[in-house]
From TrEMBL:
Pfam families in UniProt: Arginase (PF00491)
Annotated organism of origin: Novibacillus thermophilus
NCBIfam families cross-referenced by the UniProt entry: rocF_arginase (TIGR01229)
Name by which UniProt lists this protein: Arginase
EC number, as in UniProt: 3.5.3.1
Names of required cofactors: Mn(2+)
Pathway: Nitrogen metabolism; urea cycle; L-ornithine and urea from L-arginine: step 1/1
Alphabetized InterPro entries for the sequence: Arginase, Ureohydrolase, Ureohydrolase_dom_sf, Ureohydrolase_Mn_BS
Family named by the database record: Belongs to the arginase family.
Length: 299
């Protein structure tokens, strides 16, 4: 893994209904992100936050694709920023913000890696489109958009068409899927490791299988981690909590195994919402997990 990490904050909350997730990047930084990474032995460059408009200053627009234009604009800037970091030999670590920012992160990575594997750590599938989404919130659509499914403004954001392929994607920790997402998974053969598989197989086996999927015929792997993948008892500060999630111990084990595989070329941590948190607990969990991604160990 590269020893230069570039932190990119994206205080996006246009893709979600719950306000406060725009403060996620600041909360993660406040939980001593930079100190943690430097302690492990990395050089850290924090380039600050991208500019994101506030919902009050814009119209929602199409209720099936809320704030579409503004979300696309921010993601196009994010994609260019991610590409620039990677061109200079750095590792982009993106802090959200809601999960709609994954559209830009993956688009930026895919400009340099034509075949990118993706580990999607999340309670949800994020595979909705305008036609299947119950809410019209774009933070439930980023994986679909990256796969080339949905509204052309999203699928063509920062580059025409699909950025990744279904056979190179593995979802971990899923326990809430809409009906349209279930159909998309079944019809396209996407690998999903729900909490059922984690309970039955054990996290180590799940991650080993996921790594085989995302590294088979790819040039690098992107980690997209939504903090709602963690059980809400341990990470309460998220907008869409789902009971029965991955434990703190399981999540560290998963990320340690991923780290040891030495295949990651980019990562993002999203959906930390300080307004819904308790004493910045979820941001602290995020920083601890980031430590595991970058090689921190007990011994």
């Amino acid at each position: 893994m590269l020893r230069q990490i570039t932190v990119i904050g994206v205080p996006m909350d246009l893709g979600a209904d719950r306000r406060g997730v725009d403060m996620g990047p600041s909360a993660i930084r406040y939980a001593n992100l930079q100190g943690k990474l430097q302690q492990i032995g990395f050089e850290v460059e924090d380039i600050g936050n991208l500019q994101v408009p506030t919902p009050e200053t814009y119209e929602i627009g199409d209720t099936k694709l809320k704030y579409l234009r503004e979300i696309v604009r921010v993601n196009e800037e994010l994609a260019q920023t991610v590409t620039s970091v990677m061109e200079k030999g750095g590792f982009p670590l993106v802090l959200g913000g809601d999960h709609s920012i994954a559209i830009g992160t993956i688009a930026g990575v895919s400009r340099l890696q034509k075949r990118t594997g993706v580990i999607w750590f999340d309670a949800h599938g994020d595979l909705n489109t305008a036609e299947t989404s119950p809410s019209g919130n774009i933070h439930g659509m980023p994986l679909a958009a990256s796969l080339g499914w949905g509204h052309p403004d999203l699928t063509n954001c920062a580059g025409d068409g699909p950025k990744i392929s279904p056979e190179h994607v593995a979802l971990i920790g899923v326990r809430s899927l809409d009906e349209g997402e279930k159909r998309a998974i079944q019809e396209n053969g996407i690998h999903v490791f729900t909490m059922h598989e984690i309970d039955r197989m054990g996290m180590a086996k799940v991650v080993e299988e996921a790594l085989h999927i995302v590294t088979n015929g790819t040039d690098g792997v992107h980690l997209s981690l939504d903090l709602d993948g963690i059980d809400p008892n341990e990470a309460p500060g998220v907008g869409t909590p789902v009971a029965g999630g991955v434990t703190y111990r399981e999540s560290h084990l998963a990320l340690e195994i991923i780290s040891q595989a030495d295949v990651l070329t980019s990562a993002e941590f999203v959906e930390v919402n300080p307004i819904l948190d308790v004493e910045n607990k979820t941001a602290k969990v995020a920083v601890a997990l980031i430590g595991s991604v970058f090689g921190e160990r007990v011994l």
